[in-house]
Design goal:
The chain is mainly beta. The protein is built from two helices and 33 strands.
């Protein structure tokens, strides 16, 4: 009888040991998914990305983080996982965590959301009219206003008055110009004779400035074009490529002077405080045109080559945004709502010019092009 009890006890012990050695734990049976791809490398808060791979398990808890900020997993299948980018996400690595293990599955560039209001783009057909263009394609939508045969120049857009502002030559006084304003909601124009300026600069707060060539910057009455006061005296060298920086409240431009010793042009970067008129200058490389954003980014066009980002304080080159090539890039504007630098390239085939519409993503540098009619000026309305 004792032997029977002993044999039974040994059998139980042997079975228990065998079970412990051969039965894998639940933890050992679970494996991390094999990642094949991530659906995108750029996204905006609220976007849903897809991580594709193998061995995803809908019964497993997964945590997806965007540069250490946790997103929301919205769907899990055996071959993919979807996650929503959180509101406070920043650019960096995308990580996937399950059962205490974390792997990097890709990287993401977080772009600012597109505002609900859209930028509007207009083109000037020389000695004729202003038309509205499709900002995606450059195609003509409709005619805003027919101006006539006189040339419309020094064009700017006033956000505060919702007007395109420029001038026409006066028919009665050779020394004057016609101050010409066009309401973009109605197409209605108002005009008044005024002194005329080399360049007009409108701010988002409703101020208007004019450049008196080889002399000074003056503030103008935005309703009448009449001169209010002198902001800053620049001097006899020509001030050009003028933009207004909303973020620093400065008028920014450049002066080029030919140096006989080096047989080359020397450039000076100018910043003028729009409240005090204080001028800050610095020698710098010089660019064909300057492009500014409301958020304070400054870009320069290197003629027949590329667009570069510049330090707004010093004018120093930070990085290349996009290489355009040997054709000349002109009539450049910045669309705040689509975060794009927009312009055109014209190519002469021996008989006539053909035009290409260019859109450059200001975050990624990606270029989108399309053949289009071409215009004398491009004018952007940023809301």
């Amino acid at each position: 009888m004792k032997n029977i009890y002993l044999m039974t006890l040994l059998s139980v012990l042997l079975f228990s040991c065998s079970s412990d050695d051969s039965s894998p734990s639940i933890e050992n049976m679970t494996q991390l998914p094999t990642i094949e791809s991530v659906s995108t490398t750029t996204a905006t808060a609220g976007d849903v990305i897809t991580i594709t791979g193998k061995n995803f398990d809908s019964n497993t808890t997964y945590v997806v983080k965007f540069n250490e900020v946790e997103g929301t997993v919205t769907e899990v299948t055996p071959t993919f996982l979807k996650a929503q980018v959180p509101e406070n996400a920043t650019s960096g690595d995308i990580t996937l965590t399950s059962n205490g293990e974390t792997i990097v599955v890709g990287s993401i560039q977080i772009t600012p959301p597109t505002p609900t209001t859209a930028s509007r783009l207009f083109g000037y057909i020389a000695n004729d009219k202003i038309v509205e263009l499709n900002i995606e394609t450059g195609e003509e939508i409709n005619t805003l206003i027919t101006i006539g045969q006189d040339y419309f120049s020094d064009v700017t857009f006033s956000k505060s008055t919702n007007e395109i502002i420029g001038h026409l030559p006066s028919q009665t006084n050779m020394n004057d110009e016609i101050f010409y304003k066009i309401n973009v909601a109605t197409g209605e124009a108002t005009q008044k004779e005024y002194s005329g300026y080399e360049r007009l600069i409108a701010t988002n707060t409703g101020k208007l400035y004019g450049y008196v060539a080889y002399d000074k910057i003056v503030e103008l009455n935005i309703q009448t074009g009449e001169e209010i006061s002198t902001l800053a005296t620049i001097g006899p060298d020509y001030f050009k490529d003028i933009v207004y920086s909303e973020s620093t409240n400065e008028i920014i431009g450049q002066i080029s002077v030919f140096d006989d010793m080096s047989n080359a042009y020397m450039f000076t970067y100018y910043r003028i405080n729009a409240d005090t008129g204080e001028i800050t200058t610095k020698a710098y490389t010089g660019y064909e045109s300057l492009i500014i954003t409301d958020s304070g980014k400054l870009y320069g066009y290197v003629a027949y080559d590329k667009i570069v980002e510049l330090d707004i304080e010093t004018g120093e080159e930070l990085s290349t945004l996009a290489t355009i090539g040997q054709d000349y890039f002109s009539d450049v504007v910045y669309s705040e709502n689509t975060n794009e630098i927009i312009g055109q390239v014209s190519t002469f085939d021996g008989n006539s010019n053909s035009y290409t519409y260019y859109r450059i993503n200001a975050t990624t540098g990606e270029i989108t092009t399309k053949a289009y009619a071409g215009y004398e000026h491009l004018i952007i309305k940023n809301d």
